[in-house]
Write a structure and sequence with these properties.
The protein contains four helices and eleven strands. The protein is an alpha/beta fold.
């Protein structure tokens, strides 16, 4: 929950994922910054960390992530090119978008849309890293990203999921 996250020890977590959390409680933004600076890897999606419920002020995520939002949605039909593979993008159920157009402004682009625009960026901050995901990843792409970042963060998986066909992610 937001309250737990806001109070969490910034040195406790190696990997933090904040997906599609537009409005967060007071303290979440500040603690995320502390976590990343202390060495955590954070993954934040578009339409996340837009506002704090403490005065409903916009949060400076774009500056922290080293990106600039172009205020334009990604068009349908694009693919994600990441880690030597190509993945489909999905239209968000709630937001109705495939993602948002961004430009790197201090961050490194590690994944691109098939039109060449940045889809996933990474910025080194303190001892940690912040990954910004500007595209609505399908489950296979999300799995590939989290597996890669989890391995880099030294996390061990308790369960291995395998499937024969790469058409749909297993539930």
């Amino acid at each position: 929950s937001c309250r737990s996250f806001a109070k969490a020890d910034p040195e406790r977590y190696r990997l933090v994922v904040i997906p599609y959390a537009s409005l967060v409680r007071k303290g979440v933004w500040e603690n995320l910054q502390k976590m990343v600076e202390a060495g955590a890897t954070a993954v934040v999606t578009f339409d996340s960390l837009d506002w704090s419920d403490d005065g409903y002020e916009p949060l400076p995520l774009a500056q922290f992530a080293g990106i600039r939002t172009e205020k334009e949605a990604l068009p349908a039909g694009l693919k994600l090119q990441f880690d030597g593979r190509e993945f489909s993008l999905e239209k968000g159920d709630y937001c109705g978008k495939y993602g948002e157009k961004i430009a790197a402004d201090g961050a490194e682009v590690i994944g691109r849309c098939s039109d060449g625009s940045p889809a996933i960026t990474m910025k080194q901050i303190g001892r940690g890293k912040l990954y910004y995901v500007a595209a609505r990843l399908d489950l296979c792409a999300a799995d590939a990203l989290i597996r890669k970042l989890g391995a880099e963060a030294g996390l061990k998986k308790p369960v291995e999921v395998a499937f024969r066909e790469n058409k749909e992610f297993p539930y």
